[in-house]
Request: fold
Amino acid sequence: MRINLKVPFAEKNSAKALGARWDAAKKLWFIVDKPDLSPFLQWMDASSVEQKPAKVAAPIAAPLPKIAGVDYGEPPWEVTANDIILK
Reply:
């Protein structure tokens, strides 16, 4: 997960020594997938974590329409929450 940091110019060398990287396009320092965030807490705030959109389950297909004279029978399986595939 990427976390943006608010690093003052005077502290940029300290952030870089800890593994922070510079994003020239956004003009800010950031870290990615650091297991220990404690060295970076001084430069973090609640809005610094970039959230990825949550995956939403695809809707379950509607049952086949009832047509007179057609017997679809019952499927030999049950659809459960584990069967829904997220894309």
Q: What stands out?
A: The chain has one helix and three strands. Helices lie at 12-17. Strands lie at 2-5, 21-23, 28-32. The mean pLDDT is 79.
